[in-house]
Amino acid sequence: MNFTFVTLFKNIVEGYFSDSILKRAIEKNIININYLNPREFSDNKHNKVDDSAAGGGAGMVMNPQPLFDALSDLKEQDENVHIVFLTPVAKPFVQNDAKRLSKKSHIAFVSGRYEGIDERVIEEFADEVFSIGDYILTGGELASLVMCDAISRNVDGVLGNCESLDIESFETPLLEAPSFSKPQNFRGFFVSSEYLKGNHSKIRSLKLALSECKTKFFRPEQLLKHRTQSH
Ligand code: SAM
């Protein structure tokens, strides 16, 4: 699967892929990461990519020309590229989107900077527009990385043990049960002995009860959804 980061700040993004699971996925050619800098498409003699906002107001806006030309070029190279804009003015990105988007062959994430992107670019090129939460970041790079990471975990072969995907939080309305490792007694803090007795049906019941407790505490609306679905 191909990802293209359309960004003025490639360096911010690059470091994320230098270690761990996604680095291995790149080495195995399961995912490929590319970069496209709109500044390289600017026809301004100083390579400017921003301008003051039409109608006034504070801050600069990314002007249409460099992004129009960069994205046209990208589409010419791959007509199947799925272009995603990151902006707080959008639907929230959720796990179901991550799973759905993991089936695409090529996703381009377009990162805004300053006060955002001239709306005409979004109107012309967006296949989808996402926000990663109700807060304002300085740029779309972190948001693009969040999406790329969540999508990549769902691409076949990226995770060593794909079973772990089925039991994660958001696969059902319930949040995942707490995880424990070894030893059973760590400085006087014990893992429930039920986990160690090998009775899988009892372990499942215990995990379900713990999942419900966690969900009730952190996401009560999700517990309601779970109860409605299971009746
Ligand atoms: N003026 C914009 C507003 O109030 O909606 C905020 C612009 S923000 C400072 C600059 C860029 O960061 C945006 O164009 C977008 O790409 C990115 N960004 C900021 N917050 C984001 C969020 N919650 N989700 C996705 N992208 C975000």
UniProtKB/TrEMBL annotation:
Annotated residues for binding of S-adenosyl-L-methionine: G112, I132, G133, D134, Y135, I136, L137
Short name of any one Pfam family annotated for the protein: tRNA_m1G_MT
Superkingdom classification of source: Bacteria
GO biological process assignments: tRNA N1-guanine methylation
InterPro entries, A to Z: Alpha/beta_knot_MTases, tRNA_m1G_MeTrfase_C_sf, tRNA_m1G_MeTrfase_TrmD, tRNA_m1G_MTases_N, tRNA_MeTrfase_TRMD/TRM10
Annotated GO CC locations: cytosol
EC number: 2.1.1.228
Gene3D superfamilies in alphabetical order: 3.40.1280.10, tRNA(m1g37)methyltransferase, domain 2 (1.10.1270.20)
Keywords: Cytoplasm, Methyltransferase, S-adenosyl-L-methionine, Transferase, tRNA processing
Keyword Methyltransferase: yes
Catalytic activity line of the entry: guanosine(37) in tRNA + S-adenosyl-L-methionine = N(1)-methylguanosine(37) in tRNA + S-adenosyl-L-homocysteine + H(+)
tRNA methyltransferase TRMD/TRM10-type domain segment(s): 1-222
Alphabetized GO MF terms: tRNA (guanine(37)-N1)-methyltransferase activity
HAMAP family: TrmD (MF_00605)
Known role: Specifically methylates guanosine-37 in various tRNAs.
Quaternary organization: Homodimer.
Family (UniProt): Belongs to the RNA methyltransferase TrmD family.
Protein name: tRNA (guanine-N(1)-)-methyltransferase
Lineage of the organism: Bacteria, Pseudomonadati, Campylobacterota, Epsilonproteobacteria, Campylobacterales
Gene: trmD
